[in-house]
Amino acid sequence: MKVIAFDVGSKYTGFAVSDRTGTIPSESGIIESNLNEVANSIFKKVKEVGAQAVVIGVPKTLKGKDSIQTKSVLSIIKMLREMLDIPVYEIDERLTTIEATRILRDANVKRNRKKLNEVAAKLILETFLEMQGKVSDES
Hints:
Layout: E1 3-7, E2 12-18, E3 25-32, H1 38-49, E4 53-58, H2 68-83, E5 88-92, H3 96-106, H4 113-131
Parallel strand pairs: 1-4, 4-5
Antiparallel strand pairs: 1-2, 2-3
């Protein structure tokens, strides 16, 4: 089952796609759109890659509370569930930005918002696949 994950941002939304077996993250990138347009942009990307499931990272504070961004993302998830005929999953993404920042720093990659959202989306996908017991050691 091909899965696509998204890290929704106010300007840039990172995405990561698994292989067709749903075990290895195989593609990632950025969608540039504001929060008002992102549901349609995500819908198009899901159809383009032929995903059979969608995972959206839900931002929470470090204490697990809703943040300002949480309501926007939950609204987007609701729209996607109405637009798509495949499962749309939510996953807590509160530490993905911190981990993505560390990964980019360790790789000596200059921090930029686009790359940060892309790496965070890959972490969201990997977390989801691990929760499903489907992640490969190759990722």
